[in-house]
Each structure stands twice: as structure tokens, then as C-alpha cells.
Amino acid sequence: AKGSQFNCLCEYGLKIGLGFQVADDILDVCASSEHLGKTAGKDTKRGKATYPAVLGLEKSRQLAAKLADEAVAALEPFGKKAESLRKLAMALLERTR
User: Fold this and answer.
1) Structural domain that includes position 32
2) Using one digit for the tens of pLDDT, what is the confidence trace for 36-50?
């Protein structure tokens, strides 16, 4: 990848990584242990500073959506070649586990 393409991919990686963490924090609050396949509410019990704890649930959802949109925007220079990466970013918003 050229320098500018590399920077775009780095931006994508940062946005999708942070978005994944925000989505994981939201699921820890909203989903059941059975649904998650792991213990739900663990972060709250441990007093961790999660996104929902700091921002609230609605703002955390908005942040996850914003990060997914920004990840997709970072892929613009790649056109159709990056379609699978776009789908991955949007799947973060629909993640249930």
C-alpha cells in the first residue's frame, strides 16, 4: 500500500478497533450472559470505566455508529475493493455477541 493508502488503513483500524470496544461495553450492559456466551455485567461489577458508564448508553450507541461511519469513510480511496471491510465496520453496529 502507498503511504496515503497505508494511512487510510491505519485510520480504519483505529476506528474499527475502538468501535468494537464500545460495542463490547454496550453488550456487557445490555445482553444476558446466556446470549453473550460470557458473564454479562462483569465490567460494572469490577468498577471498570466503560463507555456506557462514562457516556451513558445512548451516547455510547451514537459513538459506536459514528466510529463505524468514520471507518467506512476512511476506505473511500479504495472504492469497491474495500467492500468486505465496509461490511465488517457496519457489522459492529449489529453485533450481538
Assistant:
1) 3-94
2) 777 778 888 888 889
